[in-house]
Amino acid sequence: MPRLLHSHGLAIAALSAASLLCTAAFGVPSAAAQTIAVQPAKSTRAFAESVGVNVHLSYLDTAYGNFPVVKDKLLGLGVRWIRDGLCETCSVQHGRLNELAAQGVRAQLTMGTPADVGAVARLVTAAETKVPAVVGAVEGANEWDILGGSTWISTLKAHQGELHRRMKASTTLSRIPVVGPSVVRTTSREALGDITSMLDAGNFHPYPGGLKPGWNLPGELASSALNSGTKPMVAGEIGYHNAVATTTTHPGVSERAAAVYVPRMYLDAFGRGVARTLAFELADPYADATKSVRDRHFGLLRNDFSEKPAYRSLKTLMSLLGDTKAEGGAAGLRYALAGDTTDVKSLLLRGADGAAYLALWQDASVWDRDLKKDLAPAARRVRINLGDPIARAEVYDVLQGTTSVSQYTAPRFVDLDVPAQPIVVKLTPGAVTEPGVDEPAGTGLTGTYFDNADLTAQKMVRVDPWIGFDWGRARPAPDMGYDTFSVRWEGKVVPRFSETYVLHLASDDGARLWIDGRLVLDRWGKQVSTTATASVALTAGVAHDIKLEYFDNQYDASAKLEWSSPSQARQLVPASALFPAPSA
């Protein structure tokens, strides 16, 4: 059973990393032909309770001085946890904290430093009398191993021990979790040793340092356990700054990269069992046009409160997964991933409404911190095989807002290109009662790849489950060039409905499409990514000939074939409807 730290009727759970986060490395050829195992899920409420941000509500000479905008942006973000340092005499801060408490926000409050003798007693009294409604957790000294001098261990233990004793003796706050102090260095954690008797949850600051989220979490969690044992862990600070011109040893990332990394940071930490993750921070406190002052650029908002892309991607994630309604069941889901699942991670949640939410992302870097440039890893082509009846599937991309990018009716498979940023697949359960013939059990089209743009110099032949490629500036295979390549896909397409389908063909550069030997789309020329459409009458259960030819000239390369009809929501033409050409 998870260990629970109750706070105002809610809980911090020590989650099982193995049961939540997985790097997919398996495939199932057909949902109809296989018994698909149930994968465990956690609730969307548990995830929502794990997400928070740092603020500085008493820093009146910074962006935080404009509290009406701070409050509006915080609530608009959908985050219901903040972290701040409690100031015993700051009545303005107390008023602001109480305003947020009235909106359902709770705070993890740091409680002074060992340098201030008597601070613990005064701050516990202030928490009891000034801001009791907002207190969700209290926290020991911040990074005292690098601030406290040669006696830091003894003074830190005295401070943390007193904080724990006074909180447990409080008549109103005794059930509030006491989070341990943050300790920066691994050697300091070793020197400090076991202080589990002084805390209810551990605390660490696993900043990724400009690298991809999660790379350092296993080591950080292991060394932090030297202090907190098996108790839940809280990431009191973590995040990315955008001071790309800094010369400090903590590199920044671009705002574009942060938009990809920040939502992954929360998903990855939750999946690995971190009870709460508090990004540093909500807003840039001061302006800095040079982008060289590190501590002025950690915000999700710029100093003028304009939204960085990371604010918008996190807001989208919370809109999809931040359900804080009364917690329903966390029933698992029968599903399995197939296709190119290299470095694809997944997290399964269940909402109070019964819908399952499957987050998928590629564990890839999108920023080169040495060259200080954005990277564009090619998407992974993945199929979700569904073993449970699903009435509707909707796919969302955190970089594209809360409008679904594709929808599926009564799917047995969902075909996706998994990028570096998280995508969320909402799966609404229900009986499959859609009209039409049984869904065929196709495997894809035969793809013949050429190392020239004119369909010459054949390099390989393979079966591609679908045509949904975004190579970017990568190449289809290690022994092919990055530019001037071409592909011919051939086989059969079998629809489920007898009606007029709209075929959507997007390509960069040229492409042309034949159905039953008739050229229905011809965009054979150099071009940036362009979508063309054609209406074609198809017959349910009939195998129609299909051929698609594509070439890339230079730079970005992509090819995608989708379909839609009165009974079929727009989607990639799935592998189940595609059959390869006979072998020669």
User: What shape does the CA trace take?
Assistant: elongated
CATH architecture of the largest domain: Alpha-Beta Barrel
Cross-sheet strand order for the largest sheet: 10-9-8-7-6-13-12-11
Tally the beta strands.
Answer: 35
The parts where pLDDT drops under 50 for at least 5 residues are 1-34, 432-437
User: So how many helices?
Assistant: 10
What proportion of the residues form beta strands (DSSP E)?
A: 25-35%
**What number of structural domains do the residues give?**
2
CATH class of the largest domain: Alpha Beta
Please give the radius of gyration in angstroms. Answer: 27 Å
Overall average residue pLDDT: 89
The portion of residues assigned to helices is 10-25%
Profile the largest sheet. Answer: 8 strands, parallel
CATH superfamily of the largest domain: Glycosidases
Write the CATH fold name of the largest domain: TIM Barrel
User: How far is the first residue's CA from the last residue's CA?
Assistant: 57 Å
- Structural class, judged by helices and strands? alpha+beta
Quick description:
This protein is of the alpha+beta class and 584 residues long. It has ten helices and 35 strands.
Topology of this structure?
Layout: E1 4-7, E2 10-13, H1 17-20, E3 22-23, E4 38-39, E5 42-43, H2 44-49, E6 51-54, H3 67-77, E7 81-85, H4 91-102, E8 106-110, H5 119-129, E9 135-139, H6 152-169, E10 178-179, H7 186-192, E11 202-204, H8 217-228, E12 233-238, H9 255-271, E13 274-279, H10 309-321, E14 333-339, E15 344-350, E16 356-362, E17 367-368, E18 373-374, E19 380-386, E20 390-397, E21 406-409, E22 413-418, E23 423-429, E24 445-450, E25 458-464, E26 468-472, E27 485-493, E28 499-508, E29 511-515, E30 518-523, E31 530-538, E32 544-552, E33 557-565, E34 568-572, E35 578-580
Parallel strand pairs: 5-15, 6-7, 6-13, 7-8, 8-9, 9-10, 11-12, 12-13
Antiparallel strand pairs: 1-2, 3-15, 4-14, 14-19, 15-16, 16-23, 17-18, 19-22, 20-21, 20-23, 24-25, 24-27, 26-33, 27-32, 27-35, 28-31, 28-33, 29-30, 29-32, 33-34
Helix pairs in contact: 7-8, 9-10
